[in-house]
Amino acid sequence: MWKTFTRGLNPIFMDTYDAKVLGKVRPQDDGPRRAMGRALALSRRIQLARSTPHGELTSTGYCLAEPGVSYVIFAPEGGEVEINLTDTKATFTVEWHDVNSGKISAAGPLSGGSKQLMKPPFQGPAVLFLHSVNR
After folding, report:
1. How many CB atoms neighbour CB 113 within 10 A?
2. How far apart are CA 83 and CA 59, in angstroms?
3. Which residues of 65-92 are buried (b: 16+ CB within 10 A; e: fewer)?
4. What is the pTM of this model?
5. Rounded CA gap, 20 and 113, in Å?
6. How far is CA 26 from the centre of its chain?
């Protein structure tokens, strides 16, 4: 889900159905549904029409951004993420989204003007959300 979203693509998910219980949604479908709901909520906080894929701005290669305004970065393995903010002098609020639990952890602020190295406060896949306080 997050790889698709941060590449600027339309995520899609088709429910699977148990052949024995036709018409009942399987419990394993809950994870993808929750991920899509979280991506939708985040997409409503950015100017989605102005955001484009910018994999070159991060070490993970997964970044949907309106440079200088907002960045949604996916780290599929978690760990450190390098972000190239050399082309902006903006200051950003910082949020880490735990892909597994849905928990959001605030951090920051973060200033542009250079490359930044950041690490989530938890283990596992993460989404980093930066949003300019200057707008």
Report:
1. 12
2. 7
3. bbbbbbbbbbbeebeebebbbeebebeb
4. 0.89
5. 58
6. 26
In whole angstroms, how large is the CA radius of gyration of the chain?
Answer: 16
Buried b (16+ CB within 10 A) or exposed e, 45-62: ebeeeebebbbebbbbbb
Full 3-state SS string of 87-123:
CCCCEEEEEEEECCCCCEEEEEEEECCCEEEECCCCC
Q: Which residues pair with 68 in a beta bridge?
A: none
Distance separating alpha carbons of residues 46 and 128, to the nearest angstrom: 13
Token code pair at residue 63: 């970044």
Sequential pLDDT tens for the chain (135 residues): 899 999 998 887 776 666 455 566 666 667 888 889 999 999 999 999 999 999 999 999 999 999 999 999 999 999 999 999 999 999 999 999 999 999 999 998 999 999 999 999 999 999 999 999 976
Give 106's strand partners: 95
Residues 61, 75: Cα–Cα separation, whole Å: 9
